[in-house]
Write a structure and sequence with these properties.
By secondary structure, the chain is of the alpha+beta class. It has helices at 3-18, 27-30, 45-50, 63-84, 113-129, 160-166, 168-173; strands spanning 88-94, 104-109, 136-138, 145-149, 153-158. Helix 4 (63-84) packs antiparallel against helix 5.
């Protein structure tokens, strides 16, 4: 190292030593303080114009009617989706008194595994658009029997041979009409 370079290097270190050291950034020093949050009633344009929620009178409509309307809309949505993709032999089975899991089972057939998968996909798409995302969808890979769980309505889309083998309609309609039961004797 030359004498000039050595002098330059020592002058840099001397200048750096004479300057006060900048504080090191630590986790605590990088935090910024924010303004206190505003109450929830003043957030957003809609909340500011609506005023207090207690001042607006509630509708006199009972809760059961809202639930029934939601159920009827979901039922119609499912039936429309099945009809749009030409599902075969659509049967509705009311299971309100028999199961606490769902109120309605809808069983439909497709002509091929691709058709079964397309029907189930259409039900899922329409349900999501309506704001009712499915709780679960099972069997899409094999597409012999696809189950779409929408909460109150469960949709079973099957190939005809699978539907005949399992007989869900018979299983869930036992005890509905006493005329169909065989007489022992």
């Amino acid at each position: 190292m030359s004498k000039a370079a050595a002098t330059k290097a020592t002058s840099r270190t001397a200048a750096a030593a004479s300057k006060p050291a900048a504080p090191r950034a630590t986790r605590a020093s990088t935090k910024t303080t924010s303004a206190p949050r505003r109450p929830a009633t003043t957030r957003g344009k809609a909340a500011a114009t609506a005023g207090p929620s207690r001042a607006v009178p509630r509708k006199a409509r009972p809760k059961a009617a809202k639930v029934l309307d939601a159920f009827a809309q979901l039922r119609k949505l499912v039936l429309d989706a099945l009809d749009d993709l030409k599902a075969k032999d659509v049967v509705e089975v009311d299971v309100r008194g028999k199961s606490s899991v769902a109120d309605l089972l809808v069983v439909a057939s497709g002509t091929s595994s691709r058709h079964v998968k397309s029907i189930a996909d259409e039900v899922v798409i329409k349900a999501k658009r309506a704001g009712v995302p499915p709780i679960g969808v099972e069997g899409q890979r094999e597409a012999e029997w696809v189950l779409v769980d929408l909460g109150d309505v469960i949709v079973h889309v099957m190939l005809p041979r699978t539907r005949e083998f399992y007989g869900l309609e018979r299983l869930w309609s036992v005890g509905d009409s006493h005329d169909e039961l065989p007489i022992a004797g």
